[in-house]
Specification:
Layout lengths: L2 H9 L15 H8 L9 H4 L4 E6 L8 E5 L3 E5 L5 E5 L7 E4 L5 H7 L13 E2 L13 H13 L3 E7 L1 H9 L1 H10 L1 H24 L6 E5 L3 E2 L2 E2 L3 H7 L1 H13 L3 E6 L7 H6 L4 E4 L8 H8 L4 E3 L4 H6 L1 H12 L8 E2 L12 H14 L3
Parallel strand pairs: 1-7, 7-8, 8-11, 11-12, 12-13, 13-14
Antiparallel strand pairs: 1-6, 2-3, 3-4, 4-5, 9-10
Helix pairs in contact: 6-7, 6-8, 7-8, 8-10, 14-15
Length: 367
């Protein structure tokens, strides 16, 4: 099978030849690996021949992205979403968000008109991610050429964008959003609905421009290690309606619906299925999630993308081999699983160890 065929089988619960493979990495992990044998200029995706290629979608309100300050250790920049963030160079660590463009209702009313899709502008999708990006946006022709090269390699193309909650708090502020989920629910619902309507227009434009990706991957952290960031009922009232709109839109166009949420959001997995979500990632092991148990609960209603414990991966080769063998076993005949770590691979994992991990996945993932 090609990589694309393999992933489609996994998502649709059809037995593939091998379980698909893809993963994410911290910036400092790659710095370490280039000193340990990963060739310069070669990504892990290319080196390990992953089955998925991600393209980033820009569904921002189009603020000017620019560098505000830079020193030896940090950069401070304004992103296309309008927030200002301070970021450590070369490391994937907690970000310091300095300000947000719609921190109150009046500011939101000023930002809201910016969610208008203009014609004859730069491309709204690229192989390079848009968050924290200072490089110029590509033209549609440049993106079509990149897209055609990916298609020629028969990879599954996953377009990535913020989900509704992620977009809301990047506009309104993280703490402010959690407070206003309770105190100003209508404001949060308005921001979420405005963003989702715009996101779907951007996706439609991408498809019309010939960038026909296979699935949409929304980054939507609604949980932490011990459970949801807010109550499941609040999620159902505020975010479920717009998630359902995304699901209906994708289903009508024959696209798969993938969702990333850190932590343990199992309380709304059933609701996500109702909204059309087909794949969940990264399923953090440290939050108590285990794909063997999740398969028993959700059967062929969800596919799983992750759950291989990076803490174990860094410590014990024997233990991580047992984990990979045991967790992949229930999916050998039925599909429903794509290999991914239970978050991004940290720099504590050596290049040699990770090569062993991929060998194990390909050994125990034969179907």
């Amino acid at each position: 099978m090609t990589g694309r065929e393999r992933v489609i089988c996994a998502v649709e619960h059809i037995r593939p030849d091998n379980m698909p493979v893809s993963d994410s990495f911290w910036e400092d992990t790659l710095l370490r690996w280039h000193n340990e044998g990963l060739p310069e200029g070669i990504s892990p995706s290319e080196y390990f021949d992953f089955d998925i290629v991600t393209m980033g979608i820009d569904a921002s309100p189009g603020f000017r992205a620019y560098m505000i300050d830079e020193d030896d250790q940090y950069i401070t920049l304004q992103d296309r979403f309008g927030y200002v963030v301070r970021k450590q160079k070369g490391k994937s660590r907690t970000l310091d968000y300095v300000s947000y463009p719609a921190n109150d209702r009046a500011a939101w009313e000023a930002v809201k008109p910016k969610f208008t899709l203009e014609t004859n502008t730069s491309a709204r999708i690229d192989t390079l991610a848009f968050p924290f990006r200072l490089e110029p946006e590509p033209t549609w022709q440049e993106v079509r050429e990149k897209y055609q090269a990916i298609r020629a390699n028969d990879k599954y193309i996953l377009a990535s964008a913020y989900g509704p909650h992620e977009a809301v708090w990047r506009l309104h502020g993280f703490t402010e959003t959690l407070i206003d989920i309770v105190l100003d629910t209508e404001l949060i619902m308005d921001i979420a609905a405005t963003y989702v309507a715009f996101l779907l227009k951007v996706i439609d434009l991408c498809l019309k421009e010939g960038i026909t990706f296979d699935g949409l991957f929304i980054v939507e952290d609604v949980a932490a290690t011990r459970g949801m960031l807010f109550s499941p009922d609040q999620w159902r009232a505020i975010y479920k309606p717009v998630m359902a709109k995304i699901g209906d839109f994708l289903r009508d166009r024959g696209l798969h619906f993938w969702m990333h949420s850190c932590g343990n959001g199992e309380a709304v997995f059933g609701d996500l299925i109702q909204c059309g979500v087909q794949v969940i990632n990264p399923l953090e092991a440290k939050s108590g999630l285990d794909i063997r148990e999740l398969k028993k609960k959700f059967g062929d209603k969800l596919a799983f993308y992750g759950n291989i414990n990076v803490i174990t991966m860094a410590k014990s080769e024997i233990e991580i081999e047992h984990e990979i063998r045991d967790k992949l076993a229930p999916f050998k005949r039925s599909g429903g699983y794509i290999y991914h770590s239970d978050h991004s691979v940290p720099p504590e994992v050596s290049f040699e160890r990770y090569r062993s991990v991929i060998e194990m996945v390909r050994k125990y993932g034969k179907c």
